[in-house]
């Protein structure tokens, strides 16, 4: 005997499978609460929510799962489902996924005004669906500086880890880096750990041993499904406010569905505690605030957006950690790896590595993993000359590149907490237009000094025995490596690493991104310590846009932790012990 409730559920699931094209055979999980945005008006349930979360990304998913334990939550995500999308689910498709420039792609490429090709996630699960998977926590010192409750932080990380994180079985490339780092003095070896410790370690990953990716969307399994509704392809246009009272109060959002139709979703007005929480990422969150009337006066005037509150800091202090890498030819093809081993130096540059080589004998099917031509990490061309079109055409002519140029891997360094700062400029009132973003890489001399240190450390690693055993570097002259690298769309290499000027030039010419950009809604400037937007009621921002510094060596662990952490904090504040979390 099938109950009426189950019958409705089955029908909804069927509807979902028809409407969401990415729900296919590869699907390992099904969620009854995932719906296409257009279903919003036709469903019988109330349209009033205790929490509306804008952005089902790295922070938004754990936050929604947690709040739904006690309250009705609406999670609005502009992208589609990660389930059944092979570009998302398999490590071997990492570069293909980032190269997909179609409107339905999980990755939305953009180029900063600096000329560095970058990307924004556009899928349920956000950055965790397109990233390199490396999982590593922030240090207790970082947690202390931010002012988080260390005990709750230490409970929130494992909540993520037991659901979606593994330790990798490291292959030859990552193992060579591990040994090379130790021989070059980046010691001790701290083993397999999520902790941020000086020296060398192997961190966690959201890929399993078969290369299958878990994502932040999987954290929604921990939700109360009766209190959570997730709408896919729901693009929020702006936040609506009630401006009658002393302070403007956020009351709802306006969003478009996958057919372009507009809807409005409202907060539960019976209690002042209902809130809208923006988790749209470091570009999406400041953009949404400005288009909702909270931002610098001159921006609101130029765009003719009705002002709710002037705040000159919104969209300012955009930061991106510059990355530079060196290609290392090897004797034999190496197995694909993204990031698994890291060297944490005291100078504030972090050393990581990636390798990627198809088993094919022609170069068109080979790739360099995170440094692939397909992604547009065109570091053979100085930033100001790069473009998305050039990247696209380069990827297509890859067949002219000799196969040897794909035999090898990269060692990369990223600098911690860049002092160079930029901003974003909104180009028009369409939320779908990515703003102009500027990061001003290396405009601060200390950032350049740390890059030089990082590159010199990589050079030392290359001279160690573990790399001599693995690589061909010793068999080629620098000029030969350089020539091969340039043809393969990989780095120039500095001619003399003992010449500071030459390495500085190398840093500037080959700068790319490791996609850890953050800022735009900083704590103390746009939001308070509890992530409440200054000057208005019922509105918070919880995601990477609030971070003053990128946490740990790589941020995703801490951004997910932050979603869980803030969810628990909000529940405990409202319910005390009764929160039960
Ligand atoms: C290619 C790549 C590789 C990376 N590699 C690693 C790595 O190996 N390890 C690591 O720790 N970190 C890595 N990162 C960084 C990390 O993934 C990000 O810092 C993190 O995911 C950012 O989380 P977030 O919650 O701030 O934003 P996101 O996860 O981007 O979430 C924002 C969400 O909001 C949605 N959204 C935006 N605007 C709207 C709107 N108006 N309406 C509705 N929805 C909206 C977006 O579609 C998105 O899903 C990588 C990132 C990239 C892109
Ligand atoms: C995966 O990416 C490729 C392009 O890189 C694209 O052609 C393909 O349609 C994408 N697949 C899915 C399921 O989105
Ligand atoms: C946006 O960036 C482009 C490329 O750098 C530049 O030509 C344009 O003038 C910028 N627009 C605004 C409004 O800043
Ligand atoms: C949190 O855990 C880390 C180890 O992962 C430890 O060093 C730190 O002291 C802990 N913090 C608190 C407040 O317990
Ligand atoms: C590289 O050089 C070493 C000696 O330094 C030699 O034994 C080895 O055969 C060379 N490898 C190739 C592929 O030429
Ligand atoms: C750097 O080293 C090379 C060879 O090792 C040497 O010829 C050159 O003079 C050195 N340059 C400087 C600036 O020390």
TrEMBL record:
Known cofactor(s): FAD
A GO term, aspect molecular function: oxidoreductase activity, acting on CH-OH group of donors
Residue sites binding FAD per the record: 77-78, 123, 236, 515-516, 544, 555-556
All copies of domain Glucose-methanol-choline oxidoreductase N-terminal, residue ranges: 121-144, 281-295
Segments traversing the membrane: none
One Pfam assignment: GMC_oxred_N
Family: Belongs to the GMC oxidoreductase family.
Record's protein name: Glucose-methanol-choline oxidoreductase N-terminal domain-containing protein
Organism expressing this protein natively: Rhynchospora breviuscula
Lineage: Eukaryota, Viridiplantae, Streptophyta, Embryophyta, Tracheophyta
């Amino acid at each position: 005997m099938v109950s009426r409730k189950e019958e409705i559920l089955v029908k909804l699931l069927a509807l979902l499978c028809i409407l969401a094209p990415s729900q296919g055979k590869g699907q390992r999980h099904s969620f009854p609460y995932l719906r296409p945005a257009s279903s919003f008006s036709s469903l019988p349930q109330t349209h009033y929510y205790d929490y509306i979360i804008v952005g089902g990304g790295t922070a938004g998913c754990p936050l929604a799962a947690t709040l739904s334990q006690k309250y009705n939550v609406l999670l609005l995500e502009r992208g589609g489902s990660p389930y059944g999308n092979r570009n998302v689910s398999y490590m071997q498709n990492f570069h293909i996924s980032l190269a997909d420039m179609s409107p339905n792609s999980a990755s939305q490429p953009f180029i900063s005004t600096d000329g560095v090709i970058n990307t924004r996630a556009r899928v349920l699960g956000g950055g965790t669906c397109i990233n390199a998977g490396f999982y590593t926590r922030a240090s207790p010192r970082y947690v202390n500086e931010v002012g988080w409750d260390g005990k709750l932080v230490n409970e929130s990380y494992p909540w993520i880890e037991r659901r979606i994180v593994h330790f990798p079985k490291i292959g030859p490339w990552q193992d060579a880096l591990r040994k090379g780092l130790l021989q070059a003095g980046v010691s001790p070896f701290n083993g397999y750990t999520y902790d941020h410790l000086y020296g060398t370690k192997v961190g966690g990953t959201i890929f399993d041993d078969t290369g299958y990716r878990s994502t932040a969307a999987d954290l929604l399994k921990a939700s109360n499904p009766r209190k959570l509704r997730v709408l896919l392809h729901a693009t929020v246009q702006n936040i609506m406010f009630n401006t009658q009272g002393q302070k403007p109060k956020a009351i709802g959002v306006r969003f478009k569905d996958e057919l372009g139709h507009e809807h409005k979703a409202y907060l539960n007005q019976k209690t002042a505690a209902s809130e809208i929480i923006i988790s749209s990422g470091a570009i999406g969150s400041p953009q949404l605030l400005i288009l909702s009337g909270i931002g610098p006066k001159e921006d609101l005037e130029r765009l003719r957006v009705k002002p709710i509150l002037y705040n000159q800091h919104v969209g300012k202090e955009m930061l991106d950690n510059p990355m530079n890498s060196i290609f290392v030819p090897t004797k034999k093809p190496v197995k694909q790896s993204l990031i698994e081993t890291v060297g944490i130096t005291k100078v504030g540059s972090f050393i990581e590595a990636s390798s990627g080589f198809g088993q094919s004998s022609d170069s068109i099917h080979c790739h360099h993993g995170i440094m692939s031509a397909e992604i547009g990490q065109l570091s053979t061309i100085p930033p100001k000359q790069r473009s998305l079109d050039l990247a696209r055409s380069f990827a297509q002519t890859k067949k002219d590149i000799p196969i040897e140029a794909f035999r090898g891997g990269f060692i990369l360094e990223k600098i911690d907490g860049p002092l160079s700062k930029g901003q974003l400029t909104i180009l028009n009132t369409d939320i779908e237009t990515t703003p102009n973003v500027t990061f001003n890489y290396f405009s601060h001399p200390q950032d350049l000094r740390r890059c030089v240190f990082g590159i010199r450390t990589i050079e030392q690693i290359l001279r160690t025995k573990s790399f001599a055993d693995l690589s061909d570097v010793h068999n080629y002259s620098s000029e030969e490596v350089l020539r091969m690298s340039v043809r393969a769309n990989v780095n120039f290499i500095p001619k003399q690493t003992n010449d500071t000027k030459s390495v500085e030039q190398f840093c500037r010419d080959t700068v790319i991104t490791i996609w850890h950009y953050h800022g735009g809604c900083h704590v103390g400037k746009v939001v308070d310590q509890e992530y409440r937007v200054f000057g208005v009621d019922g509105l918070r921002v919880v995601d990477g846009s609030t971070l003053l510094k990128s946490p740990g060596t790589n941020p995703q662990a801490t951004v997910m932790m932050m979603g869980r952490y803030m969810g628990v904090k909000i529940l405990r504040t409202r319910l005390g012990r009764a929160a039960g979390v």
